[in-house]
């Protein structure tokens, strides 16, 4: 199974990618005022689920909770997504949610 990377392990493995992620993605893109952090988290969860990027979901699920999304809202988003991205994508995403503490 692939290694789960977080901010620290990514920095050890690929320092430049970690730097770009921090500076460009989280330091610029996530800070733009046109969307709230909550809206950005919802979009990110939908994209990761639709694309089957389940390895990235646990971190973003926790981040979404810090950005104000409730567990019920996340479940509803993945349920809604089943009709647009497919049942397997939605169920796989929900499986990642189960890994998070209630």
UniProtKB/TrEMBL annotation:
It holds the Pfam family CMD. Residues 15-99 form the Carboxymuconolactone decarboxylase-like domain. Coiled coil: none annotated. GO terms for molecular function: peroxiredoxin activity. This is Carboxymuconolactone decarboxylase. It comes from Franconibacter pulveris. The lineage of its organism: Bacteria, Pseudomonadati, Pseudomonadota, Gammaproteobacteria, Enterobacterales.
């Amino acid at each position: 199974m692939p290694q789960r990377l977080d901010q620290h392990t990514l920095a050890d493995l690929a320092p430049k990618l970690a730097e770009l992620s921090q500076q460009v993605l989280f330091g610029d893109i996530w800070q733009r005022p046109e969307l709230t952090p909550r809206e950005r988290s919802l979009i990110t969860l939908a994209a990761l689920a639709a694309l089957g990027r389940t390895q990235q979901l646990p971190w973003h699920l926790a981040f979404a909770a810090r950005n104000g999304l409730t567990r019920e809202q996340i479940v509803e988003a993945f349920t809604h997504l089943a009709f647009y991205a497919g049942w397997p994508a939605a169920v796989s995403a929900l499986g990642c949610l189960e890994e998070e503490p209630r």
